[in-house]
Specification:
138 residues, alpha+beta, five-stranded antiparallel beta sheet
Length: 138
């Protein structure tokens, strides 16, 4: 390989890698690597194709509850699925499938702190999923 080609190719690869990983850098890599994550509960859809799980994620000392949905065959990685909803405080929550394309979140937190389609470090919302809420004491 010619020296000039290497000089153009290597920076091009670096720029491509940075641009391709930008969604993961939104809050900074140090914060992401310092976060704590625990899966509280997991439920498979009636057709067995998707899994919804309630997770507690602590970022910078602030806890959040996140409901993630992913294909059932995918590994249990935080960035593998889409964010159905998140609660920007600590709360008790359970998820149940109403149908193959709808989930119901039963929770003890205040409704105003729930945000559909967003979660820490996650830009992808579940566009094909109906999310309903049932505020009851658990």
């Amino acid at each position: 390989m010619k020296r000039r080609t290497k000089f153009i190719l290597i920076p091009g690869i670096i720029i491509l890698a940075v641009v391709a990983t930008l969604p993961f850098w939104g809050m900074g890599p140090a914060v992401f690597l310092d976060s704590e994550r625990a899966v509280i509960s997991r439920v498979t859809s009636p057709d067995g194709k998707r899994t919804a799980q309630v997770e507690r994620i602590v970022v910078g000392g602030e806890p959040s509850i996140v409901v993630m949905v992913r294909p059932a065959w995918m590994p249990d990685w935080y960035l593998a699925g889409c964010a159905a909803t998140s609660h920007h405080q600590d709360a008790t929550a359970r998820v149940r499938w109403v149908s193959n394309s709808a989930i119901d979140i039963r929770h003890s937190g205040e409704q105003r702190f729930w945000s559909t389609g967003s979660a820490p470090f996650h830009n992808e919302a579940c566009g094909d999923l109906l999310v309903t809420f049932d505020n009851k004491r658990l």
